[in-house]
Here is the input.
Amino acid sequence: MTTYEVWARRQRRSQLATRTMVLGMAAVSFVGLVIARLWPVQSVDSGEPTCLLRIMTGLPCPGCGMTRAWVHLAHGDVLTAFEYNVFGPLGMAAAAGVLVYVVVALVRRQPPERILDLVNPRVAAVLVAVWIGYSAVRMISIGMGQPYFALVVS
Here is the structure.
């Protein structure tokens, strides 16, 4: 096997892996959006916590409130969704965006993995840093008994 053939085989495997990952992201987004819409609002408002960090420490993790935010947003309650976790509606919008992009790309017979070209790594890093900072503030505030994020641990 020549060097070019080895390189070409690796390229095909890499493209297949990337396409599989993007299609998987779209599938997970679809399932999450459908579940959020079908899940009754009353059960997320009164249900027991399932987050291990929250159960063990009483403090919210960075994702605490995301499920509740998605369910409320899917049922049209935007304000409450943002109260549970500011990044919940943002994550839901991103999931919907990924799903729409991939479906449109597939219908147009274009490679859906081009969505990755739209992601700016610096912007993504800043968003992750802001999310972690927001989560740290929530944890500290709740740990100190301040009521700013009481909805998250109620």
Residues 45 and 154 are 9 Å apart (CA to CA).
